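User: Can you predict the 3D structure of Tetraacyldisaccharide 4'-kinase? Sequence below.
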Amino acid sequence: MPGISILFRPFSWIYGGVVGFRNFLFDANVLRQRKFDVPIVAIGNLAVGGTGKTPHTEYLYRMLSRHGKIAVLSRGYGRKSKGFQWVNSGNEPLRCGDEPSQMKRKFPEAIVAVDADRGEGIEEILKKDSVAAILLDDAYQHRYVKPDVNILLTDYNRLYCDDHLMPEGRLREPMTSRRRADIIIVTKCPADLKPIDFQLLNKRTKPFASQHLFFTTSTYGAPYPLFESEAKPFTGGKILAVTGIAHPSPLVSHLKTSAQVELLRFPDHHRFETEDIKRIGEKFSGHDFIITTEKDAPKLMALEHEMPKTMRSSIYVQPIEVEFLHDDADNFKKVLENGLFGI
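Assistant: Sure. Here are the predicted structure tokens for Tetraacyldisaccharide 4'-kinase:
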């Protein structure tokens, strides 16, 4: 609501001054960045809300795993624990946060940890294991660690150039902070972008000469059962989509291409409770299946015993992956590996 949001502009100016001063202190080396011997890639964005960080972190993990053990270190947003924590299973969203739990559930062999102090977290990881590289999830604003490659994501539907600083808009930092990125990725693009679209996006995002600009789209795999031993075969039909993510509309649009869909939307990072299960059960009446996200799956799984068997057998999880447009996957790999390993 532009008419209301503009009222927050004076507060955005104050916020921008604080952020600008902090960045100045880092740029002037008054606040120090720590450099580690292990290759580090940071991935994040300028805005709050979903830009597809988790699917891109998973993509990076798969790509880099051929070089050896890869560790993933996150702040663990929304977790109940404090300090450094190892993520030991994929069913610990309360202790470790949504995204780290999702990573561990999807990649059980991965070294996954959480710590708000990324420097301390890296030290703890290196005490335990020798790793080929470390992925810092949601770390664009965490400047106390100097990454070898800094990746900035911006949502095609909410480009940083169209936004404003908080609280008027969604930006944590001004658009000028894009200069710290080595790689900029425009995420969630339509798969059928034309050459003129790429040119316009290049003009609008304004990458610097030293930066690499890439474009990705979201792809959806086959839904898989949340409770495999009890699942009935997935046949589509009438679907209840249950989400606790920032922007569920792309998922709903995808599901609507092959089924009738009703959305039951919860806030981003929502902690599901017994009452929510009852509400889902009421909404599920008249539907064939429940589809949820990989981020929400561990939180729902924790409430397994609150669900009737008919619900458990009908819950499926929709995986999301990313695909590089413009046949740029190989080029992205070269740029990333050159920045991390010098190859």
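Residues 19 and 29 are 16 Å apart (CA to CA). DSSP finds twelve helices and 14 strands in the chain.
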